[in-house]
Amino acid sequence: MKRHLLAAASMILVAFPGTPLLAQPQSVELKGDVKVVRVVGEGDEKHEELQEPTRVVPGDRLAFSTRYINSGAEPAEDFVVTNPLPSAVMLAEDGSFDVSVDGGKTYGHLASLEVANGDSGSRPATLADVTHVRWTLARIAPGAQGSLTYFAVVR
Amino acid sequence: MKFCPVHCLLLSAASAAALCAVSVRAEGVPAGSVIQNTATASFTHNGVTQTVDSNIVSITVNETLDAALASQDGGPITSSGDVVLRFLLSNTGNGPETFNLVAEPAVAGNDFDLIVDKIAIDTNANGVYDDGIDTVIPGGAATPSLDADASIAILVVALVPASATDGQNSQLQLTAQAATGTGSTLADFTRVTLASDAMTAPVAIA
To answer: Is A2 helix (H, G, I), strand (E, B) or coil?
Structure first.
């Protein structure tokens, strides 16, 4: 019997060589959401409001958010959240995140990035060039939570 | 002021250009497109790198209705009788749509009003009305369905009234309005009534 158990354990190691013997429970959860930004009120009362996206048309401004929570007992280090932009939207404004304009290969501040511009070399990247946004947090303490948001316009 | 024969009807090119500067702009992603967003997090937990995906949030793009009209008469028009005013109707919405067209000859400031005979689609795209060839749009009927970004040439055939005299001016206003939401693939489609996209063709009696 002992021989059989050892053989079975070996098969698991071969099948999943990168998996630790004791799998870590997943302690961080992400929950995505989207709202549409509407301007409501008149005059001095005019303000923006996030509403359910029951009707969305080109030109509408959307708020994509990702809520995170570390529900485990240990901190999550080097926490990096990457969000590819859907092709039907364009980043509406820069934010406290890095962006990619090359499909997620490289990241940086938008103002520091360039894109190829045909024969003339390159040009400064614009909001319309952004393909991904990425947030980096050094540490998420046990029980900590937060939300990360980017705004985009329906193309 | 003498009586003016119909052959001296003149369309002012400069005025037409000023009045007809309507830009045609596609209204973005097609109605029915689904936008899906998801994020992925990576982190280190007890020295082990893990990744976790968010749920996928999805929204569907609704139909937006819009149209553009632009006069295609780039210069003066003379006519011995009927006058044919040429327009280009474009669907600048993001879904297929039909349009109701109204040619309104009674425009404020007119010295005389044209008599609208018919509105037709310039089927053979030659810029003139060809009886039996070009498709007349019956009164109260809508155009055939136009895909997003598609355009059709419209002809407004009108007569100058016998009472018109030299030096008098007239304008004809063509209005297009989305007729229905036909073609929308959305169950929650809401009909939107647009402000009219109007184009005025100034006509002057020389």
So the answer is: helix
